[in-house]
Specification:
This protein is α/β, with parallel strands linked by helices. The protein has ten helices and six strands, in the order H-E-H-E-H-E-H-E-H-E-E-H-H-H-H-H. It has a six-stranded mixed beta sheet. The longest helix is centred in the middle third of the chain and has 21 residues. It is elongated. The protein starts with 7 loop residues before the first helix and ends in a 13-residue tail after the last helix.
Length: about 280
C-alpha cells in the first residue's frame, strides 16, 4: 500500500487554525497514546509557534501503560506540558487542569502585573482524525457538546464551546498532512482507524499489524486467539488464515474468509481486546 490522503476540507482546516490562533490563549493538541509521535501533525508546530500548548495523550486506557509513561516523561524533558488521559472515564483530567495552569502561568503573571482580572482560558483543540477530540471536549464540558464517533471526519466545522467560568473551547476538524513522513507512520494511523477503512486493503493492513504484534506483543496475540507458540513463526498471511479458521471465518467449500478475519483482527486491536498495545516507543 502507498498511502497518501489529504481531503480538501483538511487544507481548509489548516487555514482555519492559522486564522483563529489570535482568538485563543492556549492550544490543546490531542494525540493517540498508542502512537504519540505518528499521530502528531508535523505542521502544528509551525502553525502555533510560541502559543502555550498542552499535549494530551488520549486513549491512554487502551495503550501500553509503561510506554505511555515513558512518552510523557520524554515530552516533559523537551519542555512540553504532556498528560496521559482517558476521555471516556475522565482519568487524567486532574493532571490536565494542572498542566493548563502551568502552561498559562506566564500569561496570568503578566495579567496580574497589569491589574487584569482572571478570565476564562480560551483554548483551541486540534488533532488528526480519530484521536478522540470530541470525546475529550464532552468530558471537559460535562455534556454532549461535540459529536462523537469511531470513524474519522466526524467534526466538519469549527465551533465554540463554553464551559462556565473556566474555559472557552474552539473545536476544529481533524487535520492530516499532505504527505506522510513514511509509510510506517501511515500504517500506524491506519491500524487505529485514523484513515477510513474503505480506502484500504484490509487484508494487507491486518497482515502488517500481525507482523508487528508477533514481534512486540506475542503473548497477548497468542492468548487472544489461543495460538501455539509455533504460530508466531508463520508468515503474516498464513497467520491471518489460521486465526480466521480458529474464529470460524469460513465460506462455502471450507475456505477461510480472510477479509472477514482481517476485519475481526483490526476490530479486536482497536477495542483493546488483544490487549493494551502501543505501536511505537520514545526515541
Amino acid at each position: 500500500m502507498n498511502l497518501q490522503w489529504f481531503p480538501g476540507h483538511m487544507a481548509k482546516t489548516r487555514r482555519l487554525i492559522a486564522d483563529n490562533l489570535k482568538l485563543v490563549d492556549l492550544v490543546v493538541e490531542l494525540v493517540d497514546a498508542r502512537l504519540p509521535m505518528s499521530s502528531r501533525n508535523p505542521e502544528v508546530d509551525q502553525l502555533i509557534k510560541n502559543k502555550p500548548r498542552v499535549l494530551v495523550l488520549n486513549k491512554a486506557d487502551i495503550a501500553d501503560e509503561k510506554v505511555t509513561a515513558a512518552f510523557v516523561a520524554a515530552f516533559k524533558k523537551q519542555g512540553v506540558y504532556a498528560v496521559a488521559l482517558d476521555s471516556l472515564s475522565g482519568k487524567g483530567m486532574v493532571q490536565f487542569h494542572a498542566a493548563v495552569q502551568q502552561a498559562m502561568e506566564g500569561i496570568f503573571a503578566k495579567d496580574r502585573e497589569k491589574g487584569i482580572r482572571p478570565h476564562a482560558v480560551k483554548m483551541m483543540v486540534v488533532g488528526i482524525p480519530n484521536v478522540g477530540k470530541s470525546s475529550f471536549i464532552n468530558r471537559l464540558s460535562g455534556r454532549a457538546a461535540a459529536k462523537t464517533g469511531d470513524r474519522p471526519g466526524i467534526t466538519q466545522t469549527k465551533q465554540w464551546i463554553r464551559i462556565a467560568g473556566k474555559y472557552e473551547l474552539l473545536d476544529t476538524p481533524g487535520i492530516l498532512w499532505p504527505k506522510f513522513e513514511s509509510q510506517d507512520v501511515a500504517l500506524r494511523i491506519a491500524f487505529t482507524g485514523g484513515i477510513k477503512d474503505e480506502i484500504m486493503d484490509i487484508e494487507e493492513l491486518a497482515c502488517a499489524l500481525l507482523k508487528y504484534l508477533v514481534t512486540n506483543y506475542p503473548s497477548e496475540l497468542d492468548a487472544r486467539y489461543k495460538l501455539d507458540k509455533d504460530a508466531n513463526d508463520l508468515e503474516p498471511f498464513s497467520l491471518l488464515s489460521l486465526i480466521g479458521k480458529k474464529r470460524g471465518c469460513i465460506i462455502s467449500g471450507g475456505e477461510v474468509d480472510t477479509f472477514r478475519a482481517a476485519n475481526l483482527i483490526l476490530d479486536d486491536f482497536r477495542s483493546a481486546r488483544i490487549g493494551n498495545i502501543t505501536l511505537e516507543i520514545p526515541i
